[in-house]
Amino acid sequence: MVKFNFSFSKTGYMKYISHLDLMRLFTRAFRRAGFAIKMTQGFSPHPKFSINRALKLGLESQDELAAVSLRESLDTQDFQERLQKQMPEGITIKQVYEEEKSKPRD
To answer: How many CA atoms, within 13 angstroms, populate the side-chain half-sphere of residue 7?
Structure first.
């Protein structure tokens, strides 16, 4: 499992999209980009994806943080390019970095 943290901006008409719709937008974009998203376990599985904070409707932001867990390893540049191609105008993927894996304790 690989966890990618990334920052994005939400500007223009996208400032009128709600937090729940933004979550759905990213989930569909991950699927369209062909990413193997890690799913939660249980009765109703959901993608392991989170946005750090929910913006109020009508506010623009230049630096929102999000994280997604994938089942396959990718280059950060490839992840950014493939995801950006699936985003509508107003959502820009700015920076992507892979989360460091912690070593198990003895």
So the answer is: 6
